[in-house]
Batch of 3 targets.
Target 1
Amino acid sequence: MAQQPDHRLDLRGATCPMNWVKLKLELEGMEAGQVVEVLLDDGDAIINVPRSAKAEGHKVLSVEPTQVGFRLLVERGDAETPSGATR
Amino acid sequence: MTREGKDKLTPTAAVEPHDAAEPKSADVAQARAEELKAGGIIPQRQKGKVTIRCKAPGGRVSAERLERIAAVARHYGSGVVHLSVRQSAEIVGVDLHDLDAVARELAAVGQEIASCGKRFRVATACGGCEYNPNGWTDTQALAQSATDRFFGEETPHKFKTTFAGCVRDCVRARMADLGFQGMVEPALAAELCTHCGICVRACRDDALTMGAEDLPVRDPDKCISCGDCIKACPFDAMVAKRVGHAVFVGGKHGKHPHPAYPVAQFVADPRVEDAIAATLAWYRDRGEPRERLGDALDRVGIDSYRRALRAVVGDGLLAGADLKKPKWARLFYDGLAETFPEYGDIG
């Protein structure tokens, strides 16, 4: 689906856990329902960051490979949503 | 260390026993004799001094009990508590003649003393799924209930039980006389899969590859049931189909280490105590005095035990061919699994 993100965040080159920390802060500054486009490296970043976002109550809308890593669309969850378990 | 502060424990640990809880002196004397007999009172190098091993299944101690242990250590011991490798809190440097007082102080907060010797020992456990995101089984609850049921039962030699919540086995279930290790079988909800390939990257055992229709395909011979793919999937397309315990038997460390052989998989929670009971029954029947379970299994033959366990675990029993697969062989040091005994076809 073609979705215009409200925010953009380039986390390429950021190491774990700083990439998740930056995304978390970005999401907290957004309103529920807004969408951020995230660029991530392959490797640890793509394994861990989407999972952390999901666990925090946000929604991963899409994950697409790019030439240099991945492009994600993440929707900011409800402020009241408690952190979900990762299981 | 002076004895000045001996009668004044810290304010938070009210030492004066409550009337309702105060044991009668005859009961204390009896309890003391039984406890000495059961062990948990360990003589030190220093003449007349003992170490008190406090019982803590799964390594869990309430803050209240911990405060009392600390108060006892401060006033009756040398002021240190040793957190032992099997998760007990040991009060060091207690005078033998203070044993009654120490037993009373600890009993007042429900702190029991653990055993040494040829018995079922306190079970150890990691945090497990109660609060650890990696854990798949409730190791704390199982360690507590197994200890409640079996602790202190006599066995040919010491018998150590351990519960690990996942295949990382932080707590060394693969070194226990009887080790239980959480495992999860993943399954794909294909209609939710977006073909992103994150699960394939998350799998460090090469068990996932992208297959037909760009969907991930799992190799069950390589999958170590860790669940990393399930946790990594952002779309809940990879889910936990079933959770259970792998069972490892015959492990020990010490002067002559012995690995624990994998004998069963996906044993469900309600069968865990039956598996322990069946193992103890076999061990008491076939083990020689002072012979550890692993040595008894090697001497008698593992198939004898496997028959006994099969009555409890049914088709969860592992076959000889299973041990050759990477999913089991790779859980041990390189080449070690090849030294394991052949599992026979027991029908």
Target 2
Amino acid sequence: MRRIFHFSLVLLLSVVLVGCAATKKKGSAEVEDSSVNLQADATSSGLSSDDSGSVQVLTTMDNTLDLDDPLGTRVIYFEFDSNALTPEAQRIVEAHAEYLAGNPGMAVVLEGHADERGTREYNLALGERRANAVAELFQMMGVMPDGIRSISYGEERPVAMEHDESAWSLNRRVELLY
Amino acid sequence: MIKVFIAGVLTLLVGLFSAPTWAVLTIEITQGQDTGIPIAVVPFRFQGQQRPNEDIRNIVSADLYRSGRFLSLPPGDFLSRPSGPDQIRFKDWRLIKAEALVIGRVSQLGNDRYEVNFYLYNVFKEKLLAGYRWTVGSSQLRQVAHQVSDYIYEALTGTPGAFDTRIAYVTVEKDSSNTRQYQLMVADSDGHNAQQILRTNFPILSPAWAPDGKRLAYVSFASRTSGAMIWVQNVETGERRKLLQEKGTASAPAWSPDGRRLALRLSRDGNHDIYIFDVAASRLTRLTKHPGIDTEPAWSPNGRHLVFTSDRSGRPHIFRISAAGGPAQRLTKEGRENAGASYDPNGKHLVMVTNQGNGDQIGVFYTGNNELKLLTDGPLDDSPTYSPNGAMIMYATQRGNQGVLAAVSADGRIKQILRLHQGEVREPAWSSRKQ
Amino acid sequence: MNRAVRKFSRPVRAVILAVLVHVAFGLLLGLSLSFKPQVIEPSVAKPVKAIVIDRSAIEQEEKHKAEAKKKHKAEAEKKRKAEAEKKRNTEAKKKHKAEAEKKRKKEAEKKRKAEAEKKRKAKAKKKRQAEEAREQEKQAAYSALGSLVGAIKRKIEGNWSNRLACSGQEVTISVKVNISGEVTAVKVVGDSGDDTCRRSAENAVYKASPLPFPDNPRFLKWLDQEFQIIFKPGI
């Protein structure tokens, strides 16, 4: 019952969003979110509105919470100005790589991000570097390139808004989106 | 013998030509008030039935104040209010120590037609410096006021004004569903007449004006699964199209001074390099080839060189390369990082974002002697852009935990926050052409 | 004559001189030859009558004569001596008088000199005093202006609104003031500084008028009412 309620609420919301297109002014262009992935939307908006800064954990297939399951972790973090995978990150990426290699139909979007220090364009490139680092490891572990999409938002979509290292360390990340 | 003779003659000459020191008192002045030129802008007299909304005097006064070079005297102190040359009593203006006087008239000629006259005087020499007339509709009165400011600025500082110009910038607001909404805006250089030219859920970055002032290139995203792309949009018509059909992500567009090419960053197979795109030929030429991140290209005013950001030597620094290709030379050696550089209109300085250990600050780098001068305090300053006359730099900064735009004079002395918008404001780009 | 002679060499000169000397002598001789000898005509003797002469009478007469002669001689001698004496006296007197005169003159001269000296000294002293007074007035004038230089400087600085216009530049303004310190003339000296800088400096001076200036009219003769102001922000 609860799930149906949640689902319809999300559906209603998205209908309202699509319906409420702002009036187009002369010279103005509207760009809508064309490929709406409800699951991903919910995830990303959930992430962005949650300021607790804790790691998000999704339930596994059989609905039990398992903090030790690396597959449950959909975010990996990076050191400042670096796109090198930490051992912890590597562990998580490898788990996902195995999963993907074993499920050829699955596609994943690797979203790279950076903290706000430095210029926006440089951070755009840095986020892409980070996403590519994960993609490379995926490919090395047998994941087909077709199933991998690497993109970067640079510093444009932070999860933590404060201007200190605790926030910055959370923004230096790659998100794995299915 | 000869020596003695010459010495004698010289002594005589020296004695003749050197004024006895007691007669000419010489005083050296090194200090002053850096308040700016005191100028009296008299409210323009209106003749007609329908007084327009725009007050030319207020717009001009605000322009001059914002430039930091003028002290606009309060009208309450004026002893008279002339609106034409024959009404001026220069003594009135000497008394309040105005160095310059601006007077004018707005006359209604018909329905929505106005004639504007303006005169600029040197008070102490009682000399007319400039006088102009316009015939316009009410919607153009703001622009006329900015042109008046430009004439005043140029006559009194020797530098062309940049008031009759436009800026583009990005705003971010959270809508009712807490989703970030991005807008690309175009406004007058004083923030008025703001128009939205793009609205999207996706980030907008790096707006760049074409030299003709009619088009903007910018970076945004087409979908959740596609990376950054460059669009070019006509500001008047709203027509827009993607610049490249290439694979890979593209960003950091920079128009060449002749408007025929765009330098940009393109990444294919994970390698970020600078390319030059010929718009008419629709042809892409690679400029740099290096495993490091090369981005943020900017053209020199003569179109022969580009500077760009590269981390090929470790941390990001500024490099220079010929537009025809070749080796890249590193320009910045000091500081932890230097990025986002662009040339001033004279091609002698580079403004950039620099980190000297105190966060991100705006600095001006002198290519002549490799000196870097800090203009702002940081710690999160970004996106500097020169005004078309090189007198001011607009940039993005934080105030009270919110992103705002600010303007600083090129020598770093006068800073001002621009009140533009609710919400976050960032990524300013100053049009290089008058409207 | 010398010049003409100098034109010729030594031997030639000698010859010319010799010739001239011979000619001169010749002339002299000629002149002397032309003199006529003087003819002296003897005088005719008168016929005489003889008288008998008494020898004693002759001897007595001769004695008389001799005595008279002797007496005459003695008298003459006496007279001569007296005259000599007299002459000597007169001369001595004269000399003495001359000496006294000389002395007198000398003393008068001395006196005159002393007085002149005294006069001169007095005059010099007066002059010196006058000069000192002038000097003092002059120094007072300078010091009055000097003590105001700081105020002049501050007033101009307070009115230099656009110092930045002169950054990296230097401009010199020549200023004339009247006794009230009002600026009567402003002129840019030389051609350094761009238009905006020059204008900012001129305006600073105009707005600073009236400038602090000593107002004692006696000082005016010492003080140049024109001075130079160098605007040099050094930034």
Target 3
Amino acid sequence: MTTTGSARPAGIARRSSKNRPARNGGIRESAVSRTVAMSVMVVATLYFLTPMWWLFVASTKTRSDFTTTAPLWFADFALFDNIAALISYRDGVFLRWLANSALYAGLGALLATLFAAMAGYAIAKYTFRGRETLFNVVLGGVLVPATALALPLFLLFSQAGATNTIWAVLLPSLVSPFGVYLSRIYAAASVPDEIIEAARIDGAGEVRTFFTVATRLMAPALVTIFLFQFVAIWNNFFLPLIMLRDERLFPVTLGLYVWNTQVSQIPDIRALVIIGSLLSVIPLIVTFLALQRFWQSGLANGGLK
Amino acid sequence: MATEIEMTPVPKTPSKPRTKAKSKSKSMPSRAISHRRALLVFLLPFSVLFTLFYIVPIGYAIYQSLLTVEREGTFGPAVQVFGGLTQYISVFQNEAFWASIGRVLMFGAVQVPVMLGVALILALLLDSPLVRGTKFFRLAFFAPYAVPSVIAAIMWGFLYSPNLSPFTAITENFDFLSPTTVLWSIANVVTWVYVGYNMLIIYSALLSIPQEIYEAARIDGANQFRIAWSIKIPLVVPALVLTGIFSIIGTLQLLAEPQVFQSFSSAVTSTFTPNLTIYTTASIPNMSLAAAMSVVLALATFALSFTVLKLTQRRTTQ
Amino acid sequence: MAISRVARVGAIAAISALALTACATGDTDAPAASGECAPSDGAVNLTFTSWLPGVEEAVAIWNEENPDVQVEVQTGPNGNGGTYQNFFNQLAAGNAPDLGQIEFDAMPNFRVQDGLENIAACEGILAAEDQFVPWTWSQVTFGEEEAVYAIPQDTGPMAMFYRTDLFEEAGIAIPTTWEEYEAAAVQIRELGGYINNFSQSDINAFAGLVWQAEGQWFSNGADGWTVDLTGAESTQVAEYWQGMIDNDLVAVYPPWTDEWNAAYNSSELWTWVSAVWGANTIASGAPDTAGNWGVAPMPQWEAGASAAGNWGGSTTAVLKGSAHPYEAAQFALWLNTDADALTAMNRTANIYPATIEGANLPVFAEGVEFYGNQKIYEVFAEAGNNVNPNFTWGPTMTQVYNDVADGFSGAVSGNGTLLDALTAGQDKTLAALKAASIPVKE
């Protein structure tokens, strides 16, 4: 093993899909194996995507077509009319909600990932007294259902006079116990001690080592944690429900939830809920696509400097 | 799981000045101090926030579970007094609560292994050269997790409906929402949502397996199944244990999906799962009883997770 | 050092938890002393939480005419969807809004939780009694002297929506008694339709039916509450509908779903015994049936009677701890009696006013196209006058609804009967009241 960082012998190709065949050294998999594998994938895709397809088709229908036409195919294509109705309803509050969600989820997930990664890395790579206690306390925090924490959290923010502000939604979202767990495992698995030692010998500080070396090695994991936290914050309406009263601060899922409860008074709002849900899923898909490239361990190659 | 790094001092090489050298005292090795400072930086943000938003509320909830209410007269104001374990006695006598715990245990015993098994298989397939179009499949499997529960209610109400479903051939003849079947219909939705999520965790773990491990297998001429069975699966066991534990926790805390089903199935009662029972109790409002139920549920979850953890640790060390 | 970190974390936790509990009972703004209701000096800002769609329009009218008393509207889901829980949290924290929308059936709960200000001492409030439909006033005063806890906003008088064309074609007379209703159900069933859908989850609708039968589920006196879900009238209603379910004379779709809407739209369901706001629900959920509906009074238990039930309705209450109860009370009274405000709220949220004069608003005077141009609101106005003023709600109606609905769900799938569900609900309600130390008269 060299001391300059790369733990992989030179010459092994990056594990990207283009170089897939090199990974198993040129053994050609049988056509049977490949067919079986692809069929499993296709069946799985049908299972996962059919309801999503239904959602898309439902969003393109007018109210009267919604229950009377074939559910999995289009009727009168009214997607853009529906979107226009959604965006203009109540002076465009839906767009505002999208922006709020982007703020809460984007900033929240970013910081949550950072904090969780640092904590998980520290727990994985350093010994200190109380390490396992700390780790188990973090797990313990997740054991209590969130319903029990609603009132105390509300009282806490009331003390600070911060209910009905963005901080009430943002700050609790910065805590990701699951992220700490994940990053501990990934740090242990993908950041070899030798690399850290090497960095130390080169004179880099611990924190600098973390930011320059470890994060790159843990990239797929960090991206996973970020994505999960992003989606979790984006779709979480329980915390905003108890904290927020001003409609202009709502995230998208709380807004849609509120609209859905008004169906008995404004039955037509159901159509807006459906098209709104479709639109609120899209940023999550886009985020996922943007992060796709990090799921290649090839970034782990390349040494330290 | 983690390798140990001893905090022993290393003699300074004079030609490379340390970046963060600052000795607090002559007897304290400077390396140890920079480690401590680093640990502070690493652990403090999360710890402070976690304490504020988890520990403190939990402490308050425990405190609340020890209270009861006294009042005078039909409309007399309520006074909260210390009640000791009164609420806990009430919880242990609550048949509906324990029935709900039995229900989610049965649910978890089936749904968690199935879901993780499917997630593992899909992750292995994605990671193998047998499959093209990985990016598309990753997105397809992840997409259900992105759907908010509000829309899941409408979506699945539609899909399971006898008359309106695209699959009326099935739903007309088989009632997916009857008292005997609704638990498994919910299991299907939970699986649908979380397989992709768990698959990505396992997949990320697979991605971090270094290449050279496959070299030996390559030389031996092993095929993909062999590689998966002998190499990949053992190396992702920590990730599997993680997803397993968190799936168990999630199962015992099942709330969103039953609430979703309540809007279109009469078979989901207000005490269908423990967390739903807690929610129902909190809306009476009886916050102290709800807090006691939450504590009991947390302890039950802890007992179960701990047992599973111990069992898997014993397995992997044998 | 690491132990000190864990210890430090623990110390922060302990101190914060203590601080939380100590401060949980503290107040922020100093509330007005009870028994007085004096105007505040200077400009006043009020907060009003309501889930009524479009209520800001009505509030905007007030804000323009009252520059010194500005009302800010805050919104959220409906009461049982989370806003009531939020009110309780906010009352505990001392930062509840000045005004809140509270449905009639939740009023006793808030009263028992001491969440309401008594605004009887405020100018003009006691005198406003004459403006409101009698049963609404008794439900906001709980029969107490010199006490008013909220201003009634809207009501839901019940009647029967029916398919004029289907009844005519089949030659079936419009039922006027429940006996006739059952007979018509048999005939309709033979033709392949259902006369109605029995809702296993709208327990407040079922309560409305019991209300029509002059039943009483709850009553309260000085020595506690009485719970009687299985009294004679309640049993009569339960057994009637159980018979209809057993003989497959009613459908049992879960209500408020697309499937339920589709059943009306496809003419499978011929009537809906529902409240005035249901007019909009049918119009929106069954658009293909436009022009073919009419409204008739609810079927009666006795021939020639004219009793009606009520389903729904809210009030505007001044929440405990408000710093400006005088201004809040004035606003609440204005919002629910002013013709412009009521018209605006009807337009945006389809509500039917609780005031006696409200039935005479211009918007209710016209025929409605969806209902064959019938002046449907006349039927509802008449029904509103025939609602028993003595119906009392219990202090834990959310819990009652949950427990009875659990049993009703079993009943519609063949496990037990509606009466069994009410009996079980009775026991659970008594247990819930005892658990909350609410006195129950033995």
